[in-house]
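User: For a reading group we're discussing how well predicted structures match intuition. Take AbrB/MazE/SpoVT family DNA-binding domain-containing protein. Before you show the prediction, I'll give you the sequence so everyone sees exactly what went in.
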Amino acid sequence: MVKVAESTITGANNTFIPPSVRSALEVESSDQVEWHVKAVDGEQQVVLMGAER
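Assistant: Thanks. Here is the predicted 3D structure of AbrB/MazE/SpoVT family DNA-binding domain-containing protein, as structure tokens, for the group to look at:
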């Protein structure tokens, strides 16, 4: 597992990904990562969509 550089993390619809989430996330650097953020009970929930190898 490799820490993902912030430059490789993009959000769908220009979604803002908090630095705390970026730093906590670990995926293979070659993976294509898609973010989906939705409001749940007034809180933002970040869902990582990616295919496992």
